Amino acid sequence: MSDAITVRGLHKxxxxxxxxxxxxxxxxxxxxxxxxxxxxxxxTTTVEILExxxxxxxxxxxxxxxxPQHGDATWRSRVGVVLQSTGEFDDLTAxxxxxxxxxxxxxxxxxxxxxxxxGLTDKQNDRTRVLSGGQKRRLDVALGIVGRPExxxxxxPTTGFDPEARREFWGLIRDLAAAGTTILLTTHYLDExxxxxxxxxxLAGGRLIAVDTPDRLGDRGSGTATVGWLGPDGPRSERTDxxxxxxxxxxxxxxxxVPGLTITRPSLEDVYLRMIGAGE
Length: 280
Ligand SMILES: Nc1ncnc2c1ncn2[C@@H]1O[C@H](COP(=O)(O)OP(=O)(O)OP(=O)(O)O)[C@@H](O)[C@H]1O
Hints:
Shape: globular
Largest sheet: 6 strands, mixed
Mean pLDDT: 92
Bound molecules: adenosine-5'-triphosphate
Distance between the termini: 39 Å
């Protein structure tokens, strides 16, 4: 499997802070990779280095086979970027902005189709300054994908989206991934990572402390489960490493169907919070 992104020993030191402290990372071609981590963990710094917007202190970085510090116009046209902060386009309409950006790319998508994909067709003739926060964010996403990038960076893409817009956005990301686009996103939403990502990485204090599939992170799949059921005196539960054995015992005890049976394992949020040491 070839890699769209390879990072070895990445360090970034600002004047008063070490933001990235020795990160090794590979993102495979065609993969959706979610970078998680608390505020200040170094996600944006890492992503901006990969995008070529920020210089690293040390380490090796290759993005689509190129060191982003030396990425030329051709390389840039292969990479789509959705930054955390919204751009200001004064008095241009949403459609004008997308059409304008499309001109910079050799294989740009049809601007009207892109506006439709991000759900902005109804707002295409509104000036961007009157768009709501979520609509501006959709416009940011439109600008990130209008060049048909091979690799798309999304820094907290759905912050400010209403639940329906988030679902629509997830559909868009799935379509892009199905078409072969490699995607690296940062997010604070664990459900977003779980829904979209093939693999997640957890950054804390500038270090990548775990990388795995969402269902395996932190031994989620094999860790302790909780079996719940409705006993004669009310709800009961038992924590166990062998839930099948507990259910078999209960089934024998009840002579068949176990009332109110549930088996739960730690959620991605549970293991994530444990990993970053929240509340300790
Ligand atoms: N331009 C800068 N100058 C100095 N320090 C910075 C700069 N940008 C970021 N930092 C510091 O580097 C660390 C990592 O910041 P970064 O923005 O990469 O974190 P993050 O994981 O993206 O956080 P968030 O989830 O809040 O967006 C923080 O301690 C931050 O204060």
